[in-house]
Design goal:
mainly beta; 13% helix; eight-stranded antiparallel beta sheet; six-stranded antiparallel beta barrel
Length: 419
């Protein structure tokens, strides 16, 4: 794995890439028999292309993930991050706009394009998503990155939930426009979809051309664009559709043993890699037909969420409707990595998040949290429930035993963490 911004490998550029593709500043490499008009030659696996581990679940993590993010995603052994349920309002004070998937007839009416033309037209609406994770103080700051697709000219960005889950800060780098803060409007872990809102951008952003996933058939050529390995410029890989309506288990890349099963996926013969998550999968008409979400175990395949599914979830988030796995806004966070310890009347603090509420209040690793607002926290789940009743910015009183066994009480303001 690479820390955000480091280059652990790059897909080799085609020697015969088109001038239009060169002008977009993108790296391109096709697999065998890509079948894309204008891709030039038989293709073949590019030298130096990284391979995923063989066997087991498929990888779908953002580039640069470290142990901290894995802890925040759920439990690992006995440890878990203590955060509450999300709250907040979507949008920026304007009425939510519904993004519409084109009809099959309209989608198929668009002309077929060359790879260079597809990339040139689509790349301005592909962004780099950079997140700061709520990492343990003992491990130091952690950043990671993925990709995203611009849905609306006002700056609503579609990406994967796993790109932003467990983050405390999100920024979006827009080619030709700079880097801006972004807010997570909501997310669905079950669909692996999140919707962001770019903040502070006064202009009109280029938007992606959407297709209809029901028009896709096995064997269709596709193009994937993303910020692989945390690179600061987009890369491109070509391939073809290998299967539809797949059910696959995704695992965290690296030390995590956590897994999640996703349904209705599109399988592609293309080397989708870390950092591509959240980027578009395009058909030969240059339309987004899916959102890349995980790499295959063999390093030569990948999986993507059909755009119809992704947009349906995004529209629900934009409308501020929770339910069916959708969570709106950020959750409250105490900034503690805790665990249940037998014989302890409370939650043992394994570590605290850097500059989080607990660390600022003087709670340290080795302390034991015994109550929130006078309510006993006899287990990690009880502490989570106590935090879940609050919103980011709420003040709570935390009672804890320090390492000397002295009972102490502090008032602190809860932080925010993305779902």
């Amino acid at each position: 794995m690479q820390e955000e911004g480091e280059v652990g490998g790059m897909r080799t550029a085609l020697l015969n890439e088109t001038a239009a593709t060169k002008g977009a500043g993108l790296e391109v490499s096709p697999p065998p028999d890509a079948g894309i008009p204008g891709s030039g030659g038989p293709g073949g696996e590019a030298p130096g292309r990284p391979h995923a581990a063989h066997g087991g679940s498929h990888r779908r993590r953002r580039s640069g993930l470290v142990l901290a993010g894995i802890l925040l995603a759920g439990s690992i052994g006995a440890g878990l991050a203590l955060t509450g349920s999300p709250s907040g309002q979507p949008g920026s004070g304007t009425a939510a706009r519904t993004v519409v998937i084109p009809t099959v007839q309209n989608a198929l009416a668009a002309p077929v394009r060359s790879t260079g033309a597809i990339v040139t037209a689509a790349s301005p609406a592909v962004v780099r998503v950079v997140v700061t994770e709520a990492s343990p103080a003992s491990q130091g700051p952690a950043r990671a990155s993925g990709s995203g697709v611009v849905l609306t000219s006002s700056g609503e960005i579609l990406t994967n939930n796993h790109v932003v889950a467990g983050s405390t800060d999100v920024r979006v780098a827009i080619a030709g426009h700079g880097t801006y803060d972004a807010r997570v409007l909501g997310a669905s872990a079950a669909a692996d979809v999140a919707l962001l809102q770019v903040e502070g951008f006064g202009g009109s952003l280029p938007t992606a051309r959407l297709g209809n996933a029901t028009t896709v058939a096995v064997g269709d050529p596709v193009v994937a664009i993303g910020y692989a390995y945390g690179l600061q410029r987009a890369t491109v890989v070509t391939g073809s559709v290998a299967g539809l309506d797949r059910t696959e288990t995704a695992s965290d890349e690296g030390v995590s043993s956590s897994t999640e099963t996703l349904h209705g996926l599109m399988e592609v013969r293309a080397a989708i890699v870390s950092g591509d998550s959240g980027g578009p999968l395009l058909n030969t008409r240059g339309q987004v037909v899916a959102i890349n979400t995980m790499a295959g175990a063999n390093g030569t395949t990948g999986f993507a969420i059909p755009v119809n599914t992704a947009v349906r979830v995004a529209n629900q988030i934009a409308a501020g409707r929770s339910g069916d796995g959708v969570r709106i806004g950020a959750g409250a966070s105490l900034g503690v990595f805790g665990q249940d310890v037998a014989g302890t009347a409370g939650v043992a603090v394994g570590d605290v998040a850097i500059d989080g509420p607990a660390e600022r209040a003087g709670i340290t690793a080795g302390d034991t949290i015994t109550a929130i607002d006078g309510e006993a926290t006899t287990s990690a789940s009880a502490l989570q429930r106590a935090i879940a009743r609050h919103r980011p910015g709420d003040t709570v009183r935390v009672r804890f035993l320090d390492q000397a066994g002295t009972s102490r009480s502090v008032a602190l303001r809860l932080g925010a963490i993305n779902p």
